[in-house]
Amino acid sequence: MDILNTIYLGNTLQSWLVAVLILAAVFAVLKIVQRAAISRLTKLAAATDNQIDDLLVTMLRQTKFFILLVASAYVASYAVVLRPSVAALWQKAVILVLIVQGGLWASAGVRFWLGRTIARRMDQDASSATTLSLLGFVARMVLWIIVFLLILDNLGVNITGLVAGLGIGGIAVALAVQNILGDLLASLSIVLDKPFVIGDYIVVDALSGTVEHIGLKTTRIRSLSGEQLIFSNNDLLKSRIRNYKRMEERRIIFSFGVVYSTSPEKLERIKAIVWDIIEKMPKARPDRVHFKEFADSSLNYEAVYFVSLPDYNVYMDVQEAINLAIYRRFQEEGIAFAYPTQTIFLERPTG
Hints:
Alpha-Beta Plaits, five-stranded antiparallel beta sheet
């Protein structure tokens, strides 16, 4: 058995064979453990609502064949004696492989979070899917830039100057595309802060409509007259936005006038009549009724009430019912509505 004692690369053939056997055994054990863990956690994930086991399954599936092989070789390397220079090089190679595997695990975690978040928000706000996808892409890009810098640092490259250069280059690029970046950041702000979502009826300055789409650069709104209004996300967030979909109830103010010939007794009854009509109206809650002012040709009243639903059509139905009820009661009470009139006095000349 002298052949087993033959020296190859500083170690006997027997030592190399032992290392190969250790490599094969460790690799087989790691592969079996990986498959068993994936199978066990997959069944556990299906039976529970806990997302941690789902995340672990996703990350285990991203453990590559080459990584297991390198880990097995690293354990097997203890069975042989390596030259100091070779051992240092091998140590760096193992660290680089571990850094890449860490990047793969982190990237899998980002994709897992992104997929779950998009799936959860699709029913509530479909527009967030596009922006969240962009956010996930940016996160993965930053992650792999960090991995790349760690690899260079472990290879002995001075990354300080490179990081400074990337910072200066990033500032230059940001200045060149600041309008686009402003809209992208505004889109992210809309998705995260949710001042409005798809389906909301909003008013922006003098324009209004229903939100149809929230994109990376623009938001599209369908106006009541049918045309589509397109706003830059950045400009939209700088504007004053009124979101009518968020109303819990609608506050209504309306006025009417009666003629000057109305008696004081009837003027006093008008407040009680209007209050009673609003109070008995379904979906309406009276707030106040007042004899407001003496106008040129009428005695004006102002009434305020709340509609329990924010829908505009419901408000118009309630207002119509109130108007008809007031008209009928005023006819029964002999109270006349005012309309613009003008009285002319003619003076007959004397002489």
